[in-house]
Design a protein that fits this description.
By secondary structure, the protein is of the alpha+beta class. Helices cover about 35% and strands about 20% of the residues. The chain is built from six helices and eight strands; from the N terminus they run βββββαααβββααα. A five-stranded mixed beta barrel has the order 1-2-3-5-4.
Length: about 250
């Protein structure tokens, strides 16, 4: 069966001297793996379209017998070259792609596809002052859209309302704990301004404003711990690890 769907290239792998395997986030068919035969030939019909983070219309010949399909064509609509002009920007895009590959299934997830596409669109022109907070916001939004949104409105253990002021955040529990439950768990205490910032970072409404380097680094570490518990399930996410610290070392 041949299908055509909006798609974003998440990763590529050389398959032979002439072909590539591509991992695609598609709007209509989830995350798919496909072989692009002849993609490495000098006069390939794919040209330079199969670059990581390229978006376009993917023409897929779906196989009913195996998980590797055939990419017959890719009509490029956007090649976001500016993502590679800044290490932190590129690392953020790579961490987003890694999350999609880790969590994505072959079931249609149009909301996750749209979230990723929107994230790459706003990430590409982001300036250096905006980028630290924006990067955390975009990853939180994809985490939430994939079904792992943290609980911040009430205690996740006993359901009690949360008092105003500092917030006890438990990555293992999946969000906020009340004053009674917090001492029995490993938590990060967020001062009131950081509590407000976290709500804004997770919210689809927007950003908490500019984050300085110290606060942005703290929010990256908090998000990474959360992802390791609830998305990675203890596994290694190399792009995320690079994004947390090393991508920002020269910022």
């Amino acid at each position: 069966m041949v299908v055509t769907t909006p798609a974003i290239v998440l990763a590529t792998l050389r398959y032979s001297e002439t072909s590539k395997i591509v991992r695609l986030a598609t709007r209509d068919h989830g995350v798919q793996s496909a072989i692009a035969k002849g993609a490495l030939r000098p006069r390939s019909r794919f040209g330079a379209s199969l670059q990581v983070f390229s978006s376009g219309q993917a023409h897929l010949l779906l196989s009913s017998r195996r998980d590797l399909h055939t990419l017959t064509a890719f009509d490029l609509t956007n090649l976001p070259v500016a993502l590679a002009s800044n290490v932190a920007r590129f690392a953020t895009a790579t961490a987003l792609a890694e999350l999609m590959i880790r969590v994505g299934s072959t079931e249609p997830r149009s909301e996750a596809y749209d979230c990723l596409a929107g994230a790459l669109e706003v990430l590409e022109p982001a300036g250096p002052e905006q980028l630290p907070g924006l990067a955390v916001h975009l990853l939180w939004r994809l985490v939430a859209t994939l079904g792992f949104e943290p609980g911040l409105s009430q205690c996740l253990r006993d359901g009690q309302p949360l008092e105003d002021g500092p917030l006890a955040f438990s990555a293992a529990d999946g969000g906020a704990l009340c004053a009674r439950c917090a001492p029995t768990a490993e938590t990060t205490m967020l001062p009131t301004p950081d509590r407000a910032a976290l709500r804004a970072l997770v919210s689809p409404a927007g950003l908490p404003g500019l984050l300085d380097q110290r606060h942005a680094a703290a929010h990256r570490r908090l998000l990474a711990r959360y992802i390791h518990y609830h998305v990675a399930e203890g596994g290694q996410l190399s792009a995320l690890e690079f994004w947390v610290g090393r991508a920002w070392a020269g910022s």
